[in-house]
């Protein structure tokens, strides 16, 4: 029996892209800060000169999947993190944006085989979103950790496939 798990301890050799939605950037900027803090504390170079990290901005969560697809197709990154915040309003618009965003991101991940972390908050209010982006905890930090785990795991799955 093989137990295959990702590790968080070594970010060397990993290249990550983060795609961030500007819509509700009060929230998404905080998610990005949390994510970068996690990655840098695990050894990833997050400086302006970094060759390990690229960050792309899109207008809203709906555009996350197409930008993620373009980045994934370069095959430069072991993992891509998407960050967005969709907050319920008075119209059904919320449901459309959430549905298309989540389906789009999942389909990029499946089509390209590159793990894409779903870092899109879907909340009923700005207060709930802010609570998850730093007021109580910062889920951006968790998304960074998930990215490191998946990058490491995918490398091990490749090795396991090659050596089985
Ligand atoms: N985009 C978001 O990221 N969050 C939202 O809450 C949101 N709302 O509520 O409308 C939102 N809409 C914009 C959408 O993602 C697209 O950018 C826009 O429709 C242009 O394609």
Mean pLDDT: 94
Number of beta-strand segments: 4
Structural class: alpha/beta
**C-alpha termini separation:** 12 Å
Q: Would you spell out the secondary-structure blueprint of this structure?
A:
Layout: E1 16-21, H1 25-41, E2 53-58, H2 64-73, E3 79-87, H3 93-112, E4 116-123, H4 126-131, H5 139-163
Parallel strand pairs: 1-2, 1-3, 3-4
Helix pairs in contact: 1-5, 2-3
The chain binds 5-nitro-6-ribityl-amino-2,4(1H,3H)-pyrimidinedione.
5-nitro-6-ribityl-amino-2,4(1H,3H)-pyrimidinedione (INI) binds at residues 21, 23-24, 59-63, 84-87, 89, 93-94, 97.
In short:
The protein is α/β, with parallel strands linked by helices and 164 residues long. 48% of the residues lie in helices and 18% in strands.
Describe the structure.
The chain is of the alpha/beta class. It has one domain (16-158): Lumazine/riboflavin synthase (Rossmann fold). The protein has helices at 25-41, 64-73, 93-112, 126-131, 139-163; strands at residues 16-21, 53-58, 79-87, 116-123. It has a four-stranded parallel sheet, sandwiched between helices. The structure holds 5-nitro-6-ribityl-amino-2,4(1H,3H)-pyrimidinedione. 5-nitro-6-ribityl-amino-2,4(1H,3H)-pyrimidinedione binds at residues 21, 23-24, 59-63, 84-87, 89, 93-94, 97.
